[in-house]
Q: What sequence folds into this?
């Protein structure tokens, strides 16, 4: 199934894109994500994109949300630039590998990978309970290890169209002792670099539906500052619990789609 080209958005399609952007901005700012975990399945399930096109388009849509999110978290002193830089360096390398894999794996394989990604995220959200006052202690060894870990979100960015924050945030909290807010803000800084790198490559490959991406991304960017303020007010446990339920709903829809014999497997 091919993506719609939207030479001139129909009213219904445009409203859907605004809705997708609003929800992505809400959850992206609230949980420190670019919003790809919402954008990709929405493009597939609601807009008729295949998994490859949805992932590629999402990389461009993530950029406005991530920029707004970093600014908003930064105003609360919740962005560790050394952590974000280390993750970004690893993410650039990971994005190169993910982009190559995106063109070689089948659509069915990409959809199963995305489902596994969602299930892993749900588990991590219940295993890792953030501590609001915690602080990451930076050293040369920690910086290098963060670069190495950044490869994983980089691959996820290009391959699955998600920012990788859903993986990076629990690891920063549980593995490096960061607070939940600092982990979210620093993760979004990483997403800016990763989404830019991946989007450029996908645009060159003509996999990105630019107007779709910009409509979603700019809408999400307008919502993000308000959802970041909500994140500051919400307890870490409630934040994790709500997001895990939301991801479970998305995972269920994907599983139903994958089990249908008519699912697109090109």
A:
């Amino acid at each position: 199934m091919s993506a719609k080209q939207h030479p001139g958005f129909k009213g219904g399609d445009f409203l859907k894109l605004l809705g997708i952007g609003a929800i992505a901005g809400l959850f992206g700012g609230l949980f420190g994500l670019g919003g790809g975990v919402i954008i990709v399945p929405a493009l597939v399930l609601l807009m008729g994109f295949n998994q490859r096109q949805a992932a590629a388009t999402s990389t461009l849509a993530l950029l406005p949300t991530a920029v707004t999110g970093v600014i908003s978290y930064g105003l609360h002193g919740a962005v560790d630039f050394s952590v974000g830089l280390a993750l970004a360096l690893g993410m650039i390398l990971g994005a190169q590998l993910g982009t190559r894999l995106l063109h070689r794996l089948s659509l069915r394989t990409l959809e199963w990978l995305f489902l596994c990604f969602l299930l892993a995220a749900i588990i991590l959200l219940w295993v890792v309970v953030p501590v609001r006052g915690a602080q990451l202690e930076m050293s040369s060894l920690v910086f290098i290890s963060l670069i190495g870990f950044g490869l994983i979100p980089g691959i996820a960015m290009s391959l699955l169209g998600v920012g990788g924050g859903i993986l990076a945030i629990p690891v920063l909290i549980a593995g490096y002792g960061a607070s939940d807010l600092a982990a979210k803000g620093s993760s979004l800084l990483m997403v800016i670099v990763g989404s830019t790198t991946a989007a450029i490559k996908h645009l060159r490959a003509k996999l990105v539906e630019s107007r779709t991406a910009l409509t979603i991304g700019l809408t999400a960017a307008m919502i993000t500052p308000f959802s970041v303020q909500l994140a500051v007010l919400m307890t870490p446990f409630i934040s994790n619990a709500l997001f895990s339920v939301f991801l479970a709903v998305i995972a269920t829809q994907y599983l139903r789609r994958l089990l249908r014999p008519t699912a697109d497997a090109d």
Observations:
- DSSP finds ten helices and no strands in the chain.
- The chain has one domain: 14-256.
- The CA atoms of residues 2 and 49 lie 6 Å apart.
